[in-house]
Input
Amino acid sequence: MTAVQNGEVKGLSVTGDRIEAEMKDGSIVTTTKHTRDSLAETFEYYGVTPEQLTNVNLIVNDQSALNNLFTIIISIGPVILLIWIFSRGFRQMQGGGGGNNIFGFGRSRAKNLNDANRPTVTFDDVAGVEESKQELAEVVQFLREPEKFVQVGARIPKGVLMVGPPGTGKTLLARAVAGEAGVPFFHISGSEFVEMFVGVGASRVRDLFDKAKQSAPSIVFVDEIDAVGRQRGAGLGGGHDEREQTLNQILVEMDGFDNETNVIVMAATNRADILDPALLRPGRFDRKVFVDLPDLKGREMILRVHSRGKPVSSEVSYKDIARLTAGFSGADLENLMNEAAIFAARRNKRTIGLLEFQDAFDRVVMGPERKSRVMSEEDKETVAYHEAGHAVVSFNLIHTDPVQKITIVPRGRAGGYVMPLPEDRFVHSREYFLDQITMALGGRAAEETFFNRVTTGASSDLQQATRLARAMVMDYGMSEVLGLPTYGSGNTNPFLGREMSYFGGGRDYSEEAAKAIDDEVKRILEESYERSLEIVRSNYDRMVQLASELMKVETLDREEFERLMNSPMLTNGNGSNGRVDSAKPDALQPTNGQLDKESLADSHPADSPLDLDLPA
Output
């Protein structure tokens, strides 16, 4: 300012608070003024008069629009952001944002299948459960033709509970009902009702049934209802408040004071034993549909359904595959068909042949083939005689299934296995169990007879035999010593878990009875083992012949095995017809087996069984 008063300034340029002075000697001087003072107040403060500014070129530049906009955003931006967040939240709350927003977690998450997204599955796509299909088809028929039932005084069941093992097609049946029914279909999982906040589940139940009533007549399907329908007041903690309130709301909605809802509730579970009795009573779940494992004819029909659209070779017999897959569920059969298709694609084939089905069956039952693992000749010989023992003992027993396949090629955790051809049985005799135990111990008997030693390969066989013997004594009353009573199955509590039930939770017998059970189980196992030893020793030459063939070709099918067992005996030239003295301390080492393929690993831990011969 002193330079302005002295006339040394040629021009001034003012931009906001910044003042730039151009001196007469050409230099540039920059300074700033106070933000609160205007330019006139600044000149007046420093004593610069208007006359002194007469010869100064004064230029005042306005601030840029960008600076003004930035100032506005900084000032009111946070307020606008808060207003937007709250308005969006309240709009979702009012507009039915469902259960996916923080304000609507009390709303039902059930999905309504309308005509646009209704499943294309129908009852024609479900096979092997004809009785269950008929039960559910009546529900669909009532919704389509209610007057047919009303005129004879019948009413449709308010609830249909589908019970069965995993993989038998309960959810598939529900999808078929959704595809067949011409009414709104709501589906939800039982676990979606349960949250950490008490009352949320009950709120979702109310919202679900409100939606269903608005669309009545309609169907509500709750999958895995045991997640929310467990018995009230059970468990170590005395119950679960949130789950129990949710269950109470379900009970009221299904059959409460206002029961004219015209809403049918379908549910599925594989744990019907833990459901609350109030949920199972007539008036809520009037009809229970048992979806069991399919029989021979059912498995054949399921295979035909899953083969639609797949190029299956004409050499494949669905009846033979169905006979081989006893105990398979619908999901297992679908997986078998898919694995066979994968094998065909891997081998660059245009059709799915019988070999692909056989390999797929082995993979599903026993696991993938372990071609990369190599074993010593001693271990291979041990496994060959072990599996030969199972096969020969089974061949000489009456109440066993015919041998379908013998192999020493490792799959999964099994080093080798004997695959029986099971039959569909609904009742089992005492003789059947005893022969199964004897067959399970055949591998151990062969090891002791031919090598005078035992290995860890029989661990799964011993577990199988012990389980069957204990079931005979404790569950089926097949013990002459203990008689008809059953033991240990009367007071089991599924809410304590299997382990806690075993240690006192489900024990309803005395110490004397426990000792008698152990003695009887041991007696059954020892007598069955003696039978196995007798069969193995009396078929010594057959054992040597079969084990030698296994070491050469590694796998024998039923035809080859039976031809070998029925062929004339070949003498081994030792003058004793192949008999062995079980008291001889030195192990006998058969030397007619050759190693010509990579097969098993050279070591097996105690918890890794060599074979899994019998179905669990």
Residues 336 and 364 are 7 Å apart (CA to CA). The two ends are 103 Å apart (CA to CA). Residues 94-100, 498-504, 571-610, 612-616 have pLDDT under 50 and may be disordered. The longest helix spans residues 65-95.
